Amino acid sequence: MTELTVQDLHVTLGKNHILKGVSMEIKRGEIVALLGPSGSGKTTLLRSIAGLELPTQGMIRISDQVVYDSADKIEVPVERRSLGFVFQSYALWPHRTVFENVAYGLKLRKVPKEEIRERVQEVLKNLGLGDLGDRFPHQLSGGQQQRVALARSLVYKPQVILLDEPLSNLDAKLREEARIWLRQLIIDLNLSAVCVTHDQAEAMAMADKIVLLKDGMIEQAGTPQQMYGAPDSLFVAEFMGANNTINGLVTDVDGDSASVKGEGWSLRGRLRAPLKAGDRTTAIVRLEKIKLAQTPKENSLRLPLTASLYLGNAWEYVFDLSGTTIRGYGNDFMPPGEQLVDIPAEHLWLF
Amino acid sequence: MNKMPFSKIAVITITAIAVFLPIGLLCWQSFLNAPFFQPEKLYGLDAYRFIFEDPDFKRAFLNSLYISLGMAFISVPLGGLLAFLMVRTNLPGRSWIEPLLLIPVFVSPMILCFGYTVAVGPVGFISIWAENILGSVPWNIYSMVSIVVIAGLSHVPHVYIYSSSALRSLGSDVEEAARVAGAGPLKVAATVSLPMVMPAMLYSGVLVFFLGFQVFGLALVLGDPEGHLVLATYLYKLTNKLGIPSYHLMAAVAMCIVAITVPLVLSQRFLLRNAHKYITLKGKGALQRTLPLGGWRWVAAGAIALWLAVTVVIPIVGIVFRAFVTNWGEGVTFLEAFTLNNFKEVFEQRNLMRGVINTILLGVIGGGLSVICFTFIGLSSHRKNNGWTRLLDYTVMTPRAVPGLLAGLAFLWVFLFFPPLAPFRKTLFSLWLAYSVVWLAYGMRLVSTSLLQVGPELEECARVTGATPGQVSRHVTVPLIKYGLLASWLMIFMIFEREYSTGVYLLGPGTEVIGSLMVSLWGAGSIDIISALSFINILLVSLGMGIALRYGVKLHD
């Protein structure tokens, strides 16, 4: 069942055309991450769904209710869309206690006092904030504030919850714990969630589906596995992971496999764009796919190792391929000198 | 986000009417040859022809120009220097100098000038003292030069306010970066610091220049004895001059003043855009280190003390002293002349007593009501940008170009002209409305500064949670700016206590306030009562300043 539909959405802010026709669907219980570089329009998309920005064209439907339609001139005001929204800064009202912050949505919905007390207590308890109800926001830690913001947007049981970089104000350690916890919470409550982030690792860890935006358009949408393992474009490949980028010339094409050649080297790779012999290509291979080899294989090169960097959990090797830097990981320190490097053909993507 | 609700449009429309209707009436009247409410009247330029042919008008215009230029040339360099000394150097005693600097802003210029008259006028007590030593009084407080110098010195704080806030928001990091890049301290000042505060200086220069054309009380008190007229006093004296109220002439003079000040106010708006051009970093980025002055700090402190003595201490001490003596002259000692009769008289004369009470009511209750109105106006354009808010922008800005005296006159006519409003003419409501419109720009600045400090996401979050725009204002925005509004109330109280010119034409039984009473008593020459009233007024303003200092209310930004 589709919980949220966005169709051909255009948004203009001032003179800038921010969103240029975005369409997407979110099913009940699904977590979708809106990913993209800054300025790609991901926050604008989220705010348009909430009704905080006014689109110029398109349609937005939440459950069965059309909340925005440029053709039928429908525009449901923000407060009647019944969404949950967690702001990047948490936006806790500093003049209200934690209890009053969380209770506000219920008060507006004219829920009886006794019931408000019960429901707020329950959601605070579920989020591990049980005895903090009387505190003011400035008396809480960053992690607690984030949970209060979440409690406030969950207490009136919205079907869809929108999160704008919910973890970006937490420190790195806390952030990794919080994303596990947040994902579990959303699944337990059977909510649909849209989460804006600029961190692709966070998106992959949290979401069932990733929508990658670029300049106000969807570049690619799919599961984290599709996005990371089978990018449709160079932009997606580069955005989703840490890569080695090698420029070369396509020499021959055989189905979806091709040979690429550069100064003093030749490799086989997989075509990810319609290329033909003689085309210039950018070859991409993820850092973790680069391995040291003991015996020469089809796609191995003998390259000079210029540095070994200690990362704690691994060593990072830096090789030189006729002026291009190739990086890979290994478990042991390697002294500078010639090494046999394996670049698996199925992981070398040609764009 | 959403369309402009009807209530907000209504607030903006009412504000625009309150501002433009009186000015429109002045404008219309200036092109008539008889009072606008008389049935027989003709359109024409008679009024303008008359005043342009009047040599007094020409002299008044030139005097106003001298005062404006003099003020700009005296107060801009001194105000800039003062700001630099206060903000960027280790001048001794900065924390207690600061509130003293602002006294000329909050004490009525009428009072300061009365103070000058009784202290350094021809028979002032300092003049007598000087005469005993030197044989003659080496100054003439009533000359045009004295008027220009006093106007200039008393407007130094206006420049100081703008320059110091620009200097404060300029972090020393940009200066340090220039030092590291190889520039010496003087080079830094000339190539980095000064150019960065230049827009603010220019802005305040334009400000004092048009304030110069609005000078009224100062010229009335100090210019009267030797007959130096300025535009505002020329307008005020027109009635005496012709013996009959000449509405069209008054309107024509008013329009001339407005024609000079409106372009200046508009140009300020343009300058303001540039004034904030460089102010990008705030907060942590603006950590400042003070420049050690060495031995010069005492020279600088001495210069500031001298300025304070001339601009604040002499007039205030003078008027306070005068309030407690029966008369003053050669050979009179303070103990013989000491009396409380001046105050007794104020408390016994019913119109004076009403004036004191009205002044307090207008400041406390009227000020509170004004802040409430300003808040509604502020909320009506809060986080919106469309044709309505632009209209409001210009509406709010316009009263700056209209001196209080003219605004009072215009409102008098509005209350005469519109029968439904006529019953209010003799009540404090008429004064309150005129005061609120005259100080609209100032009040809106106070309120919108508070409003802008509310993070937009705090309001958006309430909307998403299910609150209507009205509920957001009531539950989130207004509670968050509560303290800012209380501070604004205090500031408006002080400004309303100080105001004197707006009430001049609205003065009548029931609408007396200290300020306008002093103007009318000055004509009758009753300096005893004026001194007592001044003292009471100073007490009221000091009370406001005391509360502000006690609770850490910022007296300027």
Question: In one word, what is the shape of chain A?
Answer: elongated
User: Can you tell me the residue ranges of chain B where pLDDT is under 50 for at least 5 consecutive residues?
Assistant: 280-286
Main CATH class of the largest domain in chain A: Alpha Beta
CATH architecture annotation of the largest domain in chain B? Orthogonal Bundle
CATH-derived topology of the largest domain in chain A: Rossmann fold
Q: How would you characterize this protein structure?
A:
The complex is a heterodimer of chains A (351) and B (557). Chain A has 351 residues and is an alpha+beta fold. Chain A has 2 domains: 2-231, 3-Layer(aba) Sandwich (Rossmann fold); 242-350, no CATH class. Chain A has helices spanning 42-50, 98-108, 113-126, 142-154, 172-188, 200-206, 224-229, 234-240; strands at residues 2-13, 16-27, 31-35, 57-62, 65-69, 74-75, 84-86, 160-164, 192-197, 209-214, 217-222, 243-254, 257-262, 265-271, 280-286, 291-292, 300-310, 315-321, 324-330, 337-342, 349-350. In chain A, the strands form 4 sheets. A 6-stranded mixed β-sheet of chain A has the order 7-8-9-3-10-11, with helices on both faces. A 5-stranded antiparallel β-sheet of chain A has the order 2-1-4-5-6, with helices on one face. Chain A starts with a strand and ends with a strand. The model of chain A has no long low-confidence stretch (mean pLDDT 92). Chain B has 2 domains: 1-44 and 340-557, MetI-like (MetI-like fold, Orthogonal Bundle); 54-338, MetI-like fold. In chain B, α2 (46-53) packs across α14. The longest helix of chain B has 34 residues, at 55-88. Chain B has helices at 6-30, 46-53, 55-88, 94-101, 103-106, 109-120, 125-134, 144-154, 156-168, 172-180, 185-214, 217-223, 231-242, 247-275, 296-323, 334-337, 341-348, 350-380, 387-397, 404-417, 428-438, 440-452, 456-465, 469-480, 482-498, 514-524, 527-550. Chain B is mostly helical. Helices cover 73% and strands 0% of the residues of chain B. Chains A and B meet through α2 of A and α23 and α24 of B.
